[in-house]
Amino acid sequence: MEELSRAIVLAGSAIGAGIAMVAGLGPGIGEGYAVGKALEAIGRQPECKSDVTSTMILGVALAETTGIYSFIIALLLVLVNPLIGRL
Amino acid sequence: MEVNGASIVYQNDWFVLSGAVVTTWIVMAVVTLVCIFLTRNLKVHATSRRQVIAEFLVKSANNLVKNNMGERFGSYAPLAASVLAISVCCSLSSLLGAFPPTGDLSTVLGWALVIFTLITYWKIRAGGIGGYLRGYLQPVPVLLPINIIGEVMTPVSMAFRHYGNIASGMIISMLVYSALASLSTMVLGAIPGVVGQILSGVPIFQVGIPAVLSIYFDLFSSCIQAFIFCTLMMVNIKLAAEG
User: Fold this and answer.
1) What three-state secondary structure class fits B227?
2) ipTM metric
3) Number of Cβ pairs closer than 8 Å across A and B?
4) A68·B168 Cβ contact <8 A
5) What is the number of structural domains in chain B?
6) CATH for A2-86?
7) What's the alpha-carbon Rg for chain A, to the nearest Å?
């Protein structure tokens, strides 16, 4: 039964890691929208290109946060296996 | 393939000294020595290249703080410049082969807790202790748990964002290295005979490809995350002092 419970914990960790990475959808959509708006602004006023670009990069790295949260959780579940120690 | 934290340099009954702390000390010493070197023998009009660089750095720091925090907080320029400098140099030390101190949550959480203390101090100074405590019950008293969580999330999200970007970059580089090693073993092992057996121990594909990824993960990500950490600190202190 020891092996069965260990197998269940490992399987649960793997499934949890896969479901966690669904959160990669949000930053992709949001950052694409932000870049589209930045491109519109550059098209309207080409001389403020560097200002708009640096503000866009700042905003994109802030919006990336929840994607990074889910990525770290998925990596920890798969590679470090913290839940095995609680068996 | 395992993922390890920082190595333990010295262990005692009372404390554990980890490699991340030692690397932070080395980075602090290097930054201090560079600052001392840049400010020797200053003249009224800049004639040497060293003085021009020093003046450029000081002027950039002052402009950054004045643009983000207003005139009132002009004396916070050394704090902002030192947070920025130590964050960038700690993250860039992974280019020299060391374990980057910002890849350890303890380092970044320590900085974020210091900034949280500053934010709370300015909130109490702006509204008094009564105003600060009443602010938690502000729109509706039933929102008290949500307000507490929102308050705690400010330093936690700052720290976690910085740590998450640097640590995930480190782990992806490690995964790419081991994938390229097994790829070269597979490809070179297909050569028949003794030549194949000797050559399959040489990880030939590890030579150039990780360097291209390292441009994003080590150089770009370190600088952007340090800048965001510093900007969030300045914006949060400004909002705390006026709200």
Assistant:
1) helix
2) 0.82
3) 37
4) yes
5) 1
6) 1.20.20.10
7) 20
